[in-house]
Amino acid sequence: MWLGLASKDHTMSDEKPAREPIHEDARIDALEARLRAAREREEQRNRPQVKGVDANYRSGNRALANLLGGIIGGLVIGFAVDALLDIAPWGLLTGLFLGTASAFRSIILSANTRPAGGSENEDEAG
To answer: Which of 13-17, 28-32, 78-82, 90-94 has the lowest mean pLDDT?
Structure first.
C-alpha cells in the first residue's frame, strides 16, 4: 500500500466541491487593462516615425547624382571637343575640370538650402 493514497476510500468522484472557484478579482482585470495600454504606448513609441525615404538619404543621393553627372558629363563633352577640334588631351581635361567644378557647385548650393519640414529645431539651434 502506498501511504493510503490508493485505497478505495479516496477515489475521485463527480461530486461538486464544497467551495466554488474564486472568480478573477477586479484588480487583476484593471492590471491587465493597464498592461495592455502600456504595451500599445510602447509599440507606438518604438514604431519608426519616418514613412518612406529619409530626407538625409535623399540629399545624399542627390549629391552623388550631381557629382557623377558633373564628372561624366564633363568627360563626355571634353572628349567630344577633343574629337571635333583635334586638341587632345586639353578638351578632355578642361571638360573634366569644368564638370567637377559644376558638380561641387551644385552640391554646395543644395547643402545650403533648408529642407521643407526642417523648421522645428530652429529655436534650439539659435
So the answer is: 13-17
For residue 103, what is its C-alpha cell? 558638380
Judged on CB neighbours under 10 Å (0-12, 13-18, 19+), 100 is middle
Cell 567644378 locates to 101
Going from N- to C-terminal start, the domains of the chain cover 55-114
Helix (H, G, I), strand (E, B) or coil at 42: helix
Distance, CA of 92 to CA of 75 (rounded, Å): 6
| Total-model pTM | 0.49
For the chain, first and last CA: distance in Å?
A: 88
- On whether the CB atoms of residues 91 and 78 are closer than 8 A, the answer is yes
Interval 14-30: pLDDT, tens: 666 666 656 667 788 88
Residue type, 42: E
| Look-up of cell digits 577640334 | 85
